[in-house]
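Re: [ENG-882] Designed sequences occasionally contain unexpected residues at chain ends

Forwarding the minimal case from QA. Structure tokens:
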């Protein structure tokens, strides 16, 4: 019944980029049409009529795409229940293949609702019935993000990765997420009657952050400011259930030097080789939400300052290169003969910390808050409304 409802809703499309440099195989279980890609106009349209373009990737020129013409081509399933397959994943809507200098750009063009069906389950996960308001909040946040990122300035609107929103196509879809999308149809977060930028993250650790606390080279927004996640009258937090509400990460001397030599030069003026011994790490202030504002890294070759979210991309895991969970932490260091021999980080939260806390939304849903209350809490000063026609 949900699929029937989605099919009967009016259609126009979002454009998503899927993959760069990958081998490509395009197929449709019930046939396809290939031809020149028509000009695409991506103006803001009412609700689910909007089309979205998602970049799936760039395939090498040596890849064979059977049945396609030279130049730009369009692959469209012929049946209502047919899909196009790319990279082993099924997609709704159309696939546009366009030649570029580095290969063929593969873009998925589909309706806003169909795009959200491949996003919401991956962003909020499988939730219980008591947590359904969090699914609805995620649907509205993801929809608002997508509307804000529609553009005429390039051949796609968004990436299909964490660079924008994780999008998995048909195989990611879940009935609960479908219901969350349908029950919030056309609803977005507004400030001054316009859709806002709606960043979100896994776990705030007790408080969300303002933009410049983390992304120091961007501007603050009035609706993206620190919000406490504490449950009133308690010492607990709505995002307590998160598996990364609190965490510890440790480095021995060799591991610390390894990550510094590998990543520090990308975010400071440190040399790419020959960094030398790390002699000290010092905190350089706290942000209003309690996060580390900056770290001073002192080495034999000089002193280097890491700011905001850059800290996470340098203090990566030694074992797998994963970024540091958050900048909401304290740390202790040990030294041996003037060199840092160990570093222990005790932190809270997971992600950049700006906007909606997903685990906080789950906790608030469990406490009986509806999706409007959840969103208006994490994006203070906003209202929840519908896209105007």
């Amino acid at each position: 019944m949900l699929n029937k409802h989605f099919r009967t809703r009016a259609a126009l499309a979002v454009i998503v980029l899927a993959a760069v440099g990958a081998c490509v195989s395009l197929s449709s279980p019930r046939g396809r049409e290939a031809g020149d890609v028509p000009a695409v106009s991506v103006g803001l349209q009412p609700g689910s009529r909007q089309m979205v373009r998602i970049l799936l990737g760039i395939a090498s020129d040596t890849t064979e795409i059977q049945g396609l013409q030279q130049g730009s081509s369009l692959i469209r399933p012929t049946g209502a229940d047919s899909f196009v397959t790319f990279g082993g994943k099924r997609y709704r809507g159309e696939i546009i293949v366009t030649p570029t200098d580095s290969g063929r750009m593969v873009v998925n063009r589909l309706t806003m609702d169909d795009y959200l069906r491949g996003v919401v389950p991956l962003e909020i996960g499988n939730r219980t019935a008591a947590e359904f308001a969090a699914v609805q909040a995620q649907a509205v946040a993801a929809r608002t993000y997508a509307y804000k990122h529609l553009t005429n300035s390039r051949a796609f609107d968004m990436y299909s990765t964490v660079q924008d929103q994780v999008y998995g196509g048909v195989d990611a879809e879940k009935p609960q997420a479908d219901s969350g999308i349908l029950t919030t149809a056309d609803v977005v977060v507004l400030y001054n009657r316009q859709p806002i930028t709606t960043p979100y993250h896994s776990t705030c650790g007790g408080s969300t952050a303002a933009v410049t606390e983390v992304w120091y080279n961007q501007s603050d927004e009035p609706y993206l400011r620190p919000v406490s996640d504490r449950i009133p009258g308690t010492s607990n937090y709505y995002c307590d259930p998160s598996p990364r509400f609190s965490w510890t990460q440790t480095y021995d001397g060799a591991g610390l030097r390894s990550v510094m030599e590998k990543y520090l030069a990308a975010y400071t003026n440190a040399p790419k080789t020959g960094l030398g011994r790390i002699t000290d790490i010092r905190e350089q202030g706290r942000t209003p939400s309690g996060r580390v504002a900056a770290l001073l890294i002192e080495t034999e070759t000089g002193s280097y300052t890491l700011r905001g979210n850059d800290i996470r991309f340098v203090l990566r895991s030694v074992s797998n290169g994963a970024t540091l969970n958050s900048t909401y932490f304290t740390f202790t260091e040990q030294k041996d003969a003037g060199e840092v021999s160990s570093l222990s980080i005790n932190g809270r939260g997971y992600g950049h910390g700006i906007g909606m806390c997903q685990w906080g939304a789950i906790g608030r849903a469990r406490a009986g808050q509806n999706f409007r209350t959840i969103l208006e809490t994490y994006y203070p000063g906003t209202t929840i409304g519908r896209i105007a026609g």
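QA comment: On inspection the terminal residues look reasonable. The CA atoms of residues 36 and 73 lie 5 Å apart. Proposing we downgrade this to a documentation issue.
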